[in-house]
Amino acid sequence: MGPGRLTCALVLALMLAMGSRPQEQLPRESHNLNWSKFSGFWYILAVASEGQRFLPGRDRRKLGASMVEVHKVGQLKVVLAFSRSQGCQSHTLILRKDRKKAMFRNTCAYEGPEPGEKDLGGVEGFHVLSTDYSYGVVYVRLGRAGRTSKTLLLFSRQNTSSFPSMKKFVDICEILELANGVTVLPKDASCAHTILP
Ligand SMILES: *[C@@H]1O[C@H](CO)[C@@H](O)[C@H](O)[C@H]1NC(C)=O
Ligand SMILES: *[C@@H]1O[C@H](CO)[C@@H](O)[C@H](O)[C@H]1NC(C)=O
């Protein structure tokens, strides 16, 4: 049993213990996640989503990117850049720290698209489900109330993935029933680098 499978089994065991169905209960990010350490520039190497509207046609796909900043006390600023059918687009989210849980939520703090940005339709929450700070499996829900789609992103500090990080990503996709929607993005960093400082 490899470490990926072991984690998968543990998460499933936790879900069963909590008596909820897998698609409704997510693994929670670790309570001791160090957000400062998680900050900075990330490539997005793979995407898994219920809705394919997030991705452009095959010939236009490129690596995505994210810039994560601890903005001020209790606030996280997350910029996401993706190549979409309309071209390379970035989105900025401001998330607030939950008072009780070790996570950031997008409550009423969504600022909407900045000039030149495309509205993603709102992003609810930003959950790091697994990380060793060289990779991260990040869960976001995109869309508006009632019409959201779950999306899982594979973050990496490098433009190539390691086998264990990809395995972890795929394992979590399976738990979230997103395994059919996994897309590994082609190694073209031209869009990703648009959000480098
Ligand atoms: C969190 O990470 C930062 C940056 O790597 C480090 O300076 C800090 O000591 C860490 N905090 C804890 C509580 O580990
Ligand atoms: C990936 O990163 C390496 C090291 O930073 C760089 O040499 C290489 O050109 C990059 N590849 C792409 C496709 O951006």
TrEMBL record:
UniProt family annotation: Belongs to the calycin superfamily. Lipocalin family.
Ranges for domain Lipocalin/cytosolic fatty-acid binding come to 39-178
Record organism: Leptonychotes weddellii
Q: Is the keyword Signal in the record?
A: yes
The Gene Ontology terms for molecular function here are: small molecule binding
Q: What is this protein called?
A: Epididymal-specific lipocalin-10
Q: Which Pfam families match?
A: Lipocalin
Q: Which gene encodes it?
A: LCN10
The residues that cross the membrane are none
